[in-house]
Design brief:
It is built from ten helices and no strands. By secondary structure, the protein is an all-alpha fold. α7 (110-121) runs antiparallel to α8. It is globular, with a radius of gyration of 22 Å.
């Protein structure tokens, strides 16, 4: 028969509690990221990203884009941004568009940038509208129509664009 003293039980419980609380702190990649522990944040987000978590995919893309936790790699950033963007994540859609628009680590691609910006804006990302307006001269009207049609499959949570544009103009007016 196995016997354990109260003191041993207390020590075991204390050690188990410390271990559980330490695990709890490292289970949230945002906590690690805010603490500057980018390698831990990277590992945790990568695990979640590989299961299809769009927030984790966008975060992992951001880490690659900024070179935190790993070396800077625009191609890998784009891969993760597009994984989340194709599932309808508006932030990832805008992020992917910026890589295409600026040609960071890849050839510049205005068409793909327009697709992602259009999808992002139609899901509520206000900053995407400014970039769309600047791209009108870079695509023919037929390319714009085709890009809008292509973007439709990535718009999972559409917003009222007219209302969004009105809010944007009010914000701009308030800033002046």
């Amino acid at each position: 028969m196995f016997t354990i003293s109260r003191f041993q039980l207390l020590v075991y419980m204390l050690v188990a509690g410390i271990m559980l609380s330490a695990c709890g702190n490292t289970e949230d990649p945002r906590v690690a990221y805010e603490a500057g522990d980018y390698e831990t944040a990277f590992a945790l987000w990568q695990s979640a990203a590989e299961t299809g978590d769009t927030e984790a995919q966008n975060a992992l893309g951001t880490l690659y884009y900024l070179g935190l936790g790993r070396g800077r790699d625009y191609r890998k950033a784009l891969q993760w941004f597009e994984a989340a963007a194709s599932q309808g994540h508006p932030g990832a859609q805008r992020n992917a568009a910026m890589i295409y628009l600026d040609g960071m680590g890849i050839p510049q691609d205005f068409y793909s940038a327009y697709v992602w910006l259009y999808a992002s804006f139609h899901q509520g990302n206000e900053s995407a509208d400014r970039y769309i307006d600047s791209m009108v001269s870079k695509l023919t009207p037929n390319q714009q129509i085709k890009a809008r049609a292509d973007a439709q499959r990535y718009i999972v949570n559409p917003v009222d664009v007219e209302e969004l544009q009105l809010e944007s103009s009010v914000q701009i007016d308030n800033e002046n």
